[in-house]
Amino acid sequence: MARGTGVESGLLSFRSTHALFHVLFMEKTFLKELNEDTISGVAYKNFKLKKSIVSRLANTGNATIGDLCEEMKLSTPKITNLLGELMRDSWVQEYGKVDSTGGRRPNQYGLAPDSGYFIGVDVRKFHINIGLSDLQKNLVKVAERVPYHLTNTPDSLEELCAFINDFIAGLPVPRQKILGAGINLSGRINYATGYSYSFFYFDEEPLSRIIESRVGIPVFLENDSRAMAYGEYCAGAVNGEKDVLFLNLDHGIGLGIVMNGQLYYGKSGFSGEFGHIPLFRNEIICHCGKKGCLETEASGWALTRMFREKIGQGSSSVLTGNKSLEEIQFEDIIAAANSDDMLAIELIGEIGENLGKGIALLINLFNPELVILGGSLAETEEYIRLPVKSAINKYSLSLVSNDTQLKMSKLGERAGVMGACLLVRNRLLTVV
Fold this sequence. Notes:
Elements: H1 8-25, H2 30-34, H3 41-60, H4 65-72, H5 76-88, E1 92-97, E2 107-111, E3 117-123, E4 127-134, E5 139-147, H6 154-169, E6 178-185, E7 189-190, E8 195-196, H7 207-215, E9 219-223, H8 224-235, E10 244-249, E11 253-259, E12 262-263, H9 295-298, H10 300-312, H11 330-337, H12 342-366, E13 370-374, H13 382-395, H14 398-401, E14 405-408, H15 415-429
Helix pairs in contact: 1-5, 3-5, 8-15, 10-12, 11-12, 12-13
């Protein structure tokens, strides 16, 4: 352990000397370096090394100088110098000494949580969830289920931008410390180019750039189900599993795929269109324009259609005394099921059976370690989980599914917000 211990006093001396140099000559801070693309030469090389240290501390946790020397294959003086600059800029701080069986105990270094922040915006059909996360995955401020109607119109886009600006204006942190915003939308998103092909595709310019020009901070788009999957993978129901399928059970059905610990995007970033597998022989036209999609028999909008049909045929429910057929919405049925409404529970069971058939197909294809049920339908817990599990047992190959766990989302409404924040963090800190 001696490798990282003999430099602690030198690091402290370096920090004080370097701080004076910074005041006299106005060196660029790490935050400024992150926000510009004109760095070159030695300065750029040092910036990439500092970025590697920050990324390592963000993803793996605290480390000693010896740990960083070994992992990055750099000398003790070089790591000491880089850490000193990051401490000067308040990105890294000391976290005490590590346990040691003998000799002088080395210090641990980790990220200062308040050195940078990320905004996550999870856009649903009838509401928005938005939150602010620090560098250590702590949600500093969250607003959930804020009313908003997602429509493919310029007015809906303007309302979304205004909402984000209002949230930023009310934050307890300086605007310059907000490093970026992740925005989740349903449908076909190309995260690499920033285009959305399902909503707000009004202009040749990428949607991410359009929103960025209105909110004044870097913006990254992501498919909502994929972001939720990443949130659960990093901070939710996943406990060491590397091959995970996340089902976003909402008005539609989305799928986020994690393979060997990495999000799977596919060639153009459009993977996960699970809801549009042609699994049924029916004449119901899906939102995609085709017939027989899984969504037509196993989604939130399918549940709403089935519920209204049953009421129209004379079935009773706690909702019939309060609302007309046209007024009954998906969220009302979820609430009714959680209040022991028998019609709602019965139809959710039917939805679960259909859904489980589709999940069995996924298990046979991917042989995952874990399947997570999330989204609004998952709020009914056992009412949806039990029929899904029964159908998986019925339709999947037992040799393939025996090692697959089925869990409910741990983060719930916050899965998308957390995933959006963490994806922005990763993209800004990734060393190319």
